[in-house]
Amino acid sequence: MTRVAAIDCGTNSIRLLVADLGEAARSGGGAGDGGGARGSGGAGDGAFTDVVRRMEIVRLGQDVDRTGRLAADALARTRAALADYAAQLRDLGAERVRMVATSATRDAENAEEFHAMVTEVLGAAPEVVTGQEEAHLSFIGAVRGAPADAEPPYLVVDIGGGSTEFVRGTRDAEAAISVDIGCVRMTERHLRGDPPNPAEIAAAEADVAEAVRRALAAVSGKRARTLVGLAGSVTTVAGIALNLPEYDSEAIHHAEIGYDAVAEVTAELLRSTREQRLAIGVMHPGRADVIAGGALILRVIMEQVSAASVIASEHDILDGIALSLA
Known about the structure:
- By secondary structure, the protein is of the alpha/beta class.
- It has helices at residues 23-26, 64-67, 72-92, 103-107, 111-122, 131-143, 183-189, 198-219, 231-241, 249-252, 259-270, 274-278, 291-304, 317-324; strands at 2-9, 13-21, 48-57, 96-101, 127-128, 154-159, 164-169, 173-179, 226-230, 256-258, 309-313.
- It folds into two domains: 2-131, ATPase, nucleotide binding domain (Nucleotidyltransferase, domain 5, 2-Layer Sandwich); 147-317, Nucleotidyltransferase, domain 5, CATH 3.30.420.
- It is globular and about 50 Å long.
- Mean pLDDT is 88; it is low at 28-46.
């Protein structure tokens, strides 16, 4: 066994996965082979065993779309979360660490401040990956251990805070693109009302629809047979659709959510205030102000690919980063 640590720092959240990799993981078990951990903190299959999964909302991408810079208070929030993670990694004896930073740090003029802070706190430099590499890692993490009845090729969509990745493939990513639509970006750009008004919603939907059309054309996304959705917007919508009283990653992982349910949840979120969204049992407090934007992105994607349902996955870029350390 090799104990590895993966950190994903996105626009909205910073997440940690500590996992033990066995021989099967190190020998490169492929997508859809039934491998991978089950649930959050589950025992896994001997090839990939979760030790710890954590998530903190730090909103690193606060106002980046408007200012082009990482805000000082956003950097401070990220530093505090990262220091906590670094202490836990030392306690758990992680042998290898890889931290990937995505949309917000690709866009920011002062990304060097973020780089220096991470190197100081973590003792390792962050990798500011391209959208293509982000998409590849997300795909590998998402489809490893896919349900037996999930028919390839897959279209994996990773709806983040600042960007959404579209990846089509079977056992590996075959075509990928990253586009600048995400729950934070769409909320800051369009959905400013509480709740947003019809004009704001229409503007956001038009923005999203154009980006989705471009992305699907680039990856031939309509050729996929199974749609897999990743990240907090998708899993939160799934939890609401399942009427869960609180967030339950095991119930959400690989749940199949129909289009009608996604459309109903999206409509409800768009007409709700932030306070009303905060009262939803599965809602993380740091996601309540941006979840409507993420749900809208998911609904538009499902419409454009004519998807009857989406499979929600709790396994994503974090799992791909961990597997890359095998």
